[in-house]
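Saturday, quiet lab. Running sequence design on the structure tokens for the scaffold JK sent over.
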């Protein structure tokens, strides 16, 4: 099928009010290569018409201050902006007060009446899902689409030979996304900035090159001298 035919098929589906719409939210502080792979996987395996990339605004569940919204928004543009059918969505950073996924999904359900909504997330988020605010409302609004992650993803976690998170005890409905296990975390990326570099731990191995250049240009994640 040619690109033109694919576009026509998407148009036909839109007119039939059966769009498939994804939401992929996160701090993206910074967005890294596993985030990029997850977005590509969701677009392909869920056959999405559009995927909204949503940098978190006031994160109720984060104990540390986030990097400014402007920087995180800019890095999302660099990490995902060239992916077809994606939209960098700034609504959560524009909200006053804490930002909740249920509110965003409710808004998307109004903007795309009749659409099938998918919430794209990693296994670590699924394991903590019942601690989310209004998590049952999220389940009513969207299908959870989950990619597995390594059981340990902190700054000191080994990137090689990682073990998958165990989801066998999860008693929630979800659709599994099949993608290579990538033991990369934003915590590890932030810890890497300013450290001695070799080929195995270069920042551009962990984040898209454009994001690595942006981090360097704006001196992000560096300890004050």
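Result came back. Writing it out in full:
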């Amino acid at each position: 099928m040619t690109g033109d035919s694919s576009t026509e098929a998407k148009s036909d589906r839109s007119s039939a009010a059966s769009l498939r719409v994804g939401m992929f939210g996160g701090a993206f502080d910074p967005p890294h290569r596993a985030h990029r792979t997850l977005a590509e996987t969701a677009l392909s395996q869920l056959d999405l018409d559009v995927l909204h990339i949503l940098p978190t605004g006031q994160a109720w569940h984060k104990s540390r201050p986030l990097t400014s919204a402007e920087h995180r928004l800019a890095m999302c543009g660099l990490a995902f902006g060239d992916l077809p059918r994606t939209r960098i969505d700034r609504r959560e950073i524009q909200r006053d007060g804490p930002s909740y996924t249920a509110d965003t999904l409710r808004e998307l359900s109004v903007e795309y009446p009749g659409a099938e909504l998918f919430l794209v997330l990693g296994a670590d988020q699924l394991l903590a899902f019942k601690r989310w605010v209004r998590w049952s409302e999220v389940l009513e609004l969207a299908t959870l689409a989950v990619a597995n992650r390594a059981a340990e993803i902190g700054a000191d976690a080994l990137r090689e030979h990682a073990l998958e998170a165990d989801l066998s005890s999860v008693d929630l409905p979800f659709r599994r996304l099949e993608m290579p296990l990538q033991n990369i975390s934003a915590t590890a990326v932030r810890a890497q900035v300013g450290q001695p570099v070799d080929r195995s731990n270069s920042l551009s191995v962990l984040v898209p090159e454009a994001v690595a250049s942006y981090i360097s240009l704006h001196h992000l994640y560096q300890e004050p001298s």
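Notes for JK: The two ends are 56 Å apart (CA to CA). Residues 1-9 have pLDDT under 50 and may be disordered. Ask whether to fix the surface positions before the next round.
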